[in-house]
Design a protein that fits this description.
Layout (H helix, E strand, L loop, with lengths): L7 E5 L4 E4 L12 E4 L3 H4 L4 E13 L5 E13 L3 E14 L2 E16 L4 E12 L4 E17 L3 E15 L6 E16 L4 E12 L6 E14 L2 E12 L9 E12 L1
Antiparallel strand pairs: 1-2, 1-3, 4-5, 4-15, 5-6, 6-7, 7-8, 8-9, 9-10, 10-11, 11-12, 12-13, 13-14, 14-15
Amino acid sequence: EILSDVPIEVMRADGTLEQVTFGAGDYARHADAEYLNPDAARAGRGTVFDGRVNLSLNVTDGNSENERLYGELELKARAQHHRYRLGARGTRASERDTLTASNWLADGQYDRFLGDRRFAYARTSFQNDRFRDLRLRSTLGAGLGYQIIDTPDTQLSIQAGPHYVVEDRYGREDESYGAAGWGIRYAQWLWSRRLQIFHEQDGFWSLEETDDVVVRTRTGLRLPVTGELHATAQLNLDYDNTPALGRTSTDRTWLLGLGYTF
């Protein structure tokens, strides 16, 4: 049962909005209520913006001299029928003034909702990693997705569609191919928002060389510290089962750092 002394904005299943005061026994009259006090995006009154920046820095001086800097930025916007996301991340590391890691990734996606859960998307990404002999991997694709769960505490979506991949290499021959692409986005708040777990995955499976698969994932925990500041423990995994000569197929990066949500 819901009781209220002041009007509450109700969004019904058909999308209409109404100011309602709930009294005893009124619930049956409002059984088609989809949301109470919907935000601007759900109500169709505007766009909701949010973002996050994370930074991890490690410096060792003395008997060993090591430096590692990792940063990532994500910007998101949501309107009633549209969703946008831009992201970037990069790593730079050295040991005794010798570069040991240098890579970056930038990507973006646009979603057009076809209903409450289904959406069509278009996305692109650009990736550089000189230690994997990757001058630039560019991807462009589109497809369909489904927002399985969409609540303030839980987000889960899947998507898939055709993509085109172009790989510009430092040492070996460049190549391009069509691919089946997919994506997974999951985030879950636990224990009254004291801890958040997350997993993101993007993959590309070549339609020409079926043993050629590329997968990128980010998995970790976010722990609120104070205000909008949070601590992050994260594992980034990059997998390419046909790596350049002398390279391994899997790169793992373990990260501990601080982030800020805005």
